[in-house]
Amino acid sequence: MENSDLLRRLLKVxxxxxxxxxxxxxxAEKRVxxAEKRNRQRYDDAYVAEAAALEEKYSADIAAVKxxxxxxLDDFTRMLDVMQVNNERFSQLLERLLFENGxxxxxxxxxxxxxxxxxxxx
Length: 122
Hints:
Order of helices and strands: HHH
Number of strands: 0
Mean pLDDT: 86
């Protein structure tokens, strides 16, 4: 019976070893799951922080560009307000450019107009 006692002892040891392996596998899965959860949380926190920083920088850049644009617009408006409009000179310039000088080209009278002025037909 020594052999059967020895076999029973070995089976009990093997059974305990199997239980230890099963417990170790469960503990490993639990630790891996916890590590994945921690890493996912750290990633999410870093992602949210980076996204918030980029959003803040974007908003600041937009505000700076809007401010620069508004300043340029205000400067231009002030420049227009300061300018004096001389409607009479503008009308004279238009008259000269459009009617007297033919838009900047040398004036050429038609033959009929020349004959009308001199009194003879050409």
